[in-house]
Protein 1
Amino acid sequence: MDYILETEKLTKVYSRKKVVNEVSLQINKGAIYGLIGKNGSGKTTIIRMITGLAEPTSGKISFSKDFAKPGMRAKISAVIEPALFTYMSAAQNMETQRLALGVRDKSVIKRLLDLVGLGDAGSKKVKDFSLGMRQRLAIAVALVGDPEFLFLDEPINGLDPIGIRDIRDMINSLSHENGVTVMISSHILSELTKVATNYGVINSGELVKQFSSEELESSIKGLVVVKVNDVQRAVTAITEELGLNEYQIEENELKIHVRDGVGVSEINSVLAKNDVIVESISSNSNDYEGYFIKLMEGSSS
Amino acid sequence: MLGLLASDFYKLFHRKVFYICMILAVAFSAIGVFTLGYTVGAPYGMPDLDLKMFGYNGFMVLTQGASSVMLFAMITTVLFISNEFSNSTIRNVLIRGKNRFAVYASKLIVVFSMVTMYTLACCGASFASGCYLWGMGEPKQELLLHLAQGFGLFLLVSAAVYSFIAMLAFLIRSTGGALGTSIAATSFMGVILAGGQYLLLRWFNLKIDLNNYWITGYLGVNQGGVPSSEIPRILIVSLSYLVFSIAVGMITFWKREIK
């Protein structure tokens, strides 16, 4: 597999406490990797170790051979909380990074400020920026020098819905149009599932599971939740007439795992035909949150 | 490294504190020359003493302005370095693979340059004030050599002092803490050294002038007139502080994590 990054048993201990415990993850080139976990689960520490800000207590971090070439380390970038000079304007913050990285093209500043939606705020001092604007500017600073691997730690924290959408579009565009590999850590699952192609679920410093978006889809797809007056009669109807044998019963609620070709309307009509009163019926195919929570709770128990 | 230097100079020149401290240091240099007649004459009951009759001129007070640099350059140094940690902006270059030694060296070069700029500006102010009050005078070779020696030693001692302050800023990483420690180190060290001398004499019967080994004590060399017998000790003490501060600062910056 063409991994751009691989960690092997990555561990970090602070004051005898294992904050990150033997995390072995792999990120494919061009992927948008979502690192999901609760606050304090070790996501930021993993990113800090990978980006060289913290030394692992044990374990190994390997980048692909491309990054071993001279100067290629500058192609790895990250935003771990907005790190900006508040006394400078947005454009001046960009200029400090442009100079530090030796980027000759001065137009990069305007291009990137436009990209993150701060084209009109270039001369405004950062101290007058909202949290969302600072987040956008930090991303623009991180994009100076055209990084090929970008780490974003909780990038949508503090953003309004439009800001969240803009950042999501930007990440998609960076990945699809520029081929940038992105690792995003977040605890906002609904947003992560809109961009990520791969996931790593982390809980209490341990990597619980890694999977692709396709694997995620197939794990949660085809779940229909029905609330009925007679659960036993409903079970008989769907097993005998539709051949659906995978289900869970919770009081008067029935969670049915459906197969292709069977959906809400088929189940509803079969139940009606068998005189089962349907109080509510819904397709639960977007229950990512439930899936992730189950994974995290499963690892804790 | 050149990129880091360009970026660090850009940051320095866009800080208001750089200009405010320079203006204040220059103002104090000029005030120091304008009040020199009073300072020299008042103890003798001659507050309006005209120093021209003692041969004072612009060249004679040329390097006196450097005495005003200390506090203002210290403030600028601490704010310039610790701000990178308090805003976490130091991360922006380290994440991009910049060598930590290079990052440290770049900051140190910018600090040395800033101190040199302050020193030159203050010397310019004291020279201009001296010229205004007593005329420029003749640049006699003996006087110029005397001033050049004092100025050269002052720059070396300054490099040692500000590498020490830069080390404190890199170690402490918070603006208030680093500034407080630097001011305390320069203000109260005299008292601590006097106490040390007393204890050495009392307990071990050793008579040592510890002030000879505390670097800020040599910042007065800009006045010139340093006896040639003292020069080797000034050189050794300055170089020792310089090497010690750079080594400790760089190694701890290399080892410690960045938040």
Protein 2
Amino acid sequence: MRLYGTELSSRLMLGTAQYPSPAILAEAFRRSGAGIATVSLRREAAGGDGGAFWDLVRDLGVRILPNTAGCHSAREAVTTARMAREMFGTPWIKLEVIGHADTLQPDPWGLVEAARELCADGFEVFPYTTEDLVLAERLLDAGCGVLMPWGAPIGTGLGLSNRHGLRSLRAQFPEVPMVVDAGLGLPSQAAEAMEMGFDAVLLNTAVARAGDPAAMAEGFAKAVEAGRLGYEADPMEPRDMAAPSTPLIGRAVLA
Amino acid sequence: MKITVNGEPREIAADTLQQALDALGHGDARVATAVNEAFVPAAARAETRLAPGDRVEILAPRQGG
């Protein structure tokens, strides 16, 4: 899988929030095989050196994808992205511009405005978006080379809440790398996204809030791999009536 | 001089953003900065003059999804 020209061996991307401990976070990453970790920027207490968490993440040995989580306007998101680029030394930014407090649904207008400004400024933008086709087109026009449609609202674990919309988005832009980001709760839901032809999944809460985060991380890794293999293997068409798989010829007559 | 740092009012003896960072004990810390909602790169902190009422944000790497 290539994202903005970078070859990645894993199709699983993992967040770094909400783990019971730093050690469990590290173990979850190890067992997930994830090649990308999402991180954020937050206010530093006076005297703080900002170092402890950064050291932990650097030791994971994965690529860093900073986010603009919590931003509710294009301006906030653009400023946060510029701060993140300096802090983490990467042009990658997971662009979140939130438009609704309860669903954390993206603000389409703010998202496009911020994406346009950041792409023009040399960022490689990973927009957290919905399955809306028109919004997707606007984001691509703005210069985005990857789309990250939601499966369901962040942190809900509901899985793929609009399968038709996601399928339609995948079919509309077959060449664009797409990552299903947010809303996944179970490995089977990740496998389903991969079977639909999405290139990767990004999750956090499903792993971090599991009773055994490291085991869940490995479960997701296997599901992502299984789903991708299923997609690449060109699945059979479903049919309504049964069709015997065992040959009828040579059947004994015992009745 | 009274400024706001990360949403809290502070009285700080500093003319520039770099001096404010030093006064707050951040020194060479791995932080990113903004003044009045605009990003200030690390290289520009020493020349960025602060005025009373300025809003300074000092951010560091944290967990994120």
Protein 3
Amino acid sequence: MLKDLNIPRMGSVENARLVAWKVQIGEAYAAGDTLYEIETDKTTTEVEADEAGVLASQLASEGDEFKVGDRIGQWAAAGTNAATLRTLLGGEPAPLTAVEVEPVAAPAHLLASLETGLRPLPRSAAAGQRISPLARRLAALHRVDPGTLQGSGPRGRITGKDILKASASTSSAESALVVQAAAPVSSAAPPVVVEGQSTFLPHSMRRRTIANRMVQAAAIPSLTADMEIDLSALLARRRTMPGVSVLALVAHEAVASLLDHPRLNAHWHDDGMLQWDTVHLGIAVDTPDGLVVPVINHAERLNPLGLTHAIAERADKARNGRLRLDEMEGGTFTISNPGSVGPVIRAEALLNPPQVALLGLPGMVRTPLAIPDGDGWSIAVRPVLRASLTFDHRALDGGPVIEYLNTLKSRIESL
Amino acid sequence: MSHEVMGYNAAMGLGLVEEMRTDESIFIMGQGVVTGGWFGMEKGLVAEFGADRVIDCGISEAFEAGLAAGASIVGMKPVINMGFGDFALIAGDEIYHKLAKWRYMHGLDVPMTAVIIFPIGAMGGAGPEHSSCTEVLGMHFPGLKVVVPSTPEDAKGLMKAALREPNPVLFHSVQGLGWSRGDVPLDPDFVVPIGKAVTRRAGADLTIVTYGSMVPRSLEAAETLSTEGIECEVIDLRSLVPLDWDHVLASVTRTHRAMVVHEAFRTAGPGAEIAAQIQERIFFELEAPVLRLGAKDFPLCQSADLEQAAIPSAGSIADTARQLMAI
């Protein structure tokens, strides 16, 4: 009997492009072997076999695009020989290309009941987890992988609320894809390549995602407030803490300040704010393939050294394309650090929706500052950071943002 | 139209009187109905409608129910008061076979309007043979409608609906609520449709599905729980057949937690069916199993104190709700 090979569910991913088949038709493979490689809007992933088998058909070519769940091939049980495989394939319909596979029509009443909720997460995806029936259905509906969640119910049971919370934190990824369908990034005329002078470089999935998210972010009425922070104390403190980076120290104080100003650690939803008691810190990382924002969960639990390691580990993974999807989702606040790339003067950025605030860190500069000196003032050259806080003006007014920056400044200057 | 505050049994009697005034085919039989009935519902009936329509009987439940089946087939509308629901078991064949099945068995293309009154439940030491809650039998045998009013208003409105209904209705009057009083509409056109539940209290955290004597106790428990931050939605089913599934399922779909409370025994009581259907139909809306609370599974005690200890109280309902929230 032939079984279908479907694009697996991966976090909030909806679209995928087949990069390469790693197994050829008729070839046997063991459980855990890589079957094929796909590119999603977030990363490139190798898909492994759940169990041993023989690849019977490839119904998709490299470069084809799919939705999660689409069938791209068929396989047979391990040990199936070539002749049996041919017999099995004889009765199969012609290979499908990358179009939506229409399911066999189900009776109307059954469809209705499926639509009203009887489509839970498959048992295999929920296996080994304590999860309520409601949570199981919501996980499928909102495409949340319960494996990435810590349940809040008794003995760690995952509840419906946990799924909704996780879904709210990843809804940005889903809505980005919706925007993609509604308002594709387009230029007026098709590109004309002039031989010898210009080259056409098709967008990667990630580039398209970034483009759409930027269009989405630019539509948010946002403002940026800057504040000058003297880093003398921080640099002095750092000398007593071997191995700790300046970024981690600043991020540590930024996270601690968020706990005092939780309104900035929140997600915008049209009918209310989802305010977080914990900080899942996004760190924007520049990679050759484009910007990615890995997330450090529960950043408030880390000390500066822990944060240094976490940032380095995420950045390293990002640059090597090894980030897992769950390491890029669920951020509640983002730090963008263009100062690490070059001495930019200002670090205004676009928001990372649905987050309502983003801290931009330009390069540190040494500059003359007027310093209180007895009854008067004197001039001193000091290391200065001109931090920029970009905020969603729908969610926040200037007042709380300045208060947050005041807290951040006084924390850093009094380290 | 105005309202009047009256007792539960009096309101039931008012519903009967109003219908008897407009429909001459209605008559009532039972032990002591001429002298006003055991619980006062039939007070004054014989003076207004005469002995032809208000007929006193000996201890003859099987005869009375059998007569109701026959009379309803020929177009009369009998109302039989069993005195105690317990005694209806003597008439089990006539109620659960004849009344329930004859429209189907014999292809009778005529209505069979008949109201069998089952006074049910604990009433303060009447003992195990005079306190049964037998409404689950009406749910089990197809062909009957089953109502259990919890307020004087519903007692009147459901009695009137039962007398306009083409199928036999088992009308369960709650003995424990017999002397409770409430506002009753005096409009002769006021009826409470059979098969419609009502939400007595709105709440977002869990749904208590109940009826009859447990409605006031569930509401009392809900008030206690509210002070602890648990908001219960309390649904009074009013009818068990047909049961207002849409109403129940819509509520549980909002709250994701449900419990069923009744005075009937817990094992194989109405709650077993209700819990089973909630789980079958909206399993993937549930955060927790559907819990049941009913009378303890032994013959009800004669002592009024022990009797109350055997059936759910506002305190035990609140405890079960807390347990449900902790799952």
